[in-house]
Design goal:
single chain; alpha/beta; Rossmann fold; 8-stranded mixed β-sheet; two-stranded antiparallel sheet; 17% strand
């Protein structure tokens, strides 16, 4: 195999609470015809240089949509493939928000105040949790308005800040705090429809709005194609026979999602930052 076709093994996709996103079958499948080029292109897209810190807001299309695990997966892939810090924030509350897969430190006012005056990356990350795969983590304990004093003041020290807003009653904080907004829908026609509608509400000159559908393995026939027709990314069920490790298609889909987010951030930056 020539150097130009050396496969980018999905072992580097990231690590979640379930374990590394890899396996022997992933290594073998990454060598199939067309896969080395596909994975190399995704890797390059994820690693693309960005001049500014990027804030990504992840929202649930409805009360049952799994925004938290998708936000965690996105943060893990970005942290694994990009050279700088990534912060994963749990800001959602109530409906649409699951408990974080990994514990994050409780919101502490004194720690928030200290980080607000940070002058170095070490000061900005002091007291934050380190999650599987490398992202830093912070749980706002359902107090979404605290994002502005707990996160905004340190966001410049991170390459990406990925915030899970759950299914918020109001969209103002998510809109204002995110340059890229990702709507997550469950694999049902109703949730997909709600996701398309929410994406349309969020789209505007100040933010790029994306849509992804998370399949739990029970998606009705034809829904994946309907999602693609509506411009949504499809995240297939990740649990295989060996439940501690996601299936290869789920790993590649995670890479595709991260690539879409970085590309959206780069496009938005080009329109806002003069050459």
């Amino acid at each position: 195999m020539s150097p130009t076709t050396t496969p980018v093994v999905p072992a580097h996709a990231g690590r979640t609470a379930y374990g590394p996103l890899t396996g022997l079958h992933a290594v073998l499948r990454s060598c199939l015809p067309g896969q080395p080029e596909r994975l190399t292109a995704l890797d390059a897209a994820i690693r693309a240089s960005l001049p500014l810190s990027t804030r990504v807001g992840v929202l649930a299309a409805d009360a049952g949509a799994p925004s938290e695990p998708v936000a965690g997966l996105l943060a893990a892939v970005l942290a694994a493939r990009r050279p700088h810090r990534v912060l994963s924030v749990a800001a959602g509350a109530g409906l649409g928000r699951a408990e974080p897969a990994e514990p994050r430190p409780a919101l502490d006012d004194s720690a928030v105040a200290r980080r607000a005056t940070a002058r170095t990356g070490a000061e900005a990350t002091h007291g934050l949790a380190r999650l599987p795969g490398g992202p830093w983590g912070l749980d706002l304990a359902g107090q979404a308005p605290r994002w502005w004093d707990a996160v905004a003041s340190i966001s410049r020290f991170f390459d990406f800040v990925v915030t899970d807003w759950g299914a918020p009653a109001a969209l103002d904080d998510a809109r204002a705090a995110g340059g890229v907004l990702l709507v997550v829908a469950s694999a049902t026609p109703e949730s997909l429809r709600a996701g398309v509608e929410l994406r349309a509400r969020l789209a505007g000159p100040g933010a790029a709005a994306l849509l992804a559908v998370q399949d739990d393995g029970g998606a009705p026939r034809g829904l994946a194609e309907a999602a693609r027709v509506n411009g949504a990314g499809w995240l297939p069920s990740g649990r295989g026979p060996r439940r501690h490790r996601p299936r290869y298609p789920a790993t590649v889909a995670a890479l595709e999602l991260a690539a879409r987010v970085v590309t959206a951030a780069a496009t938005r930056t080009r329109t806002e930052v003069p050459a």
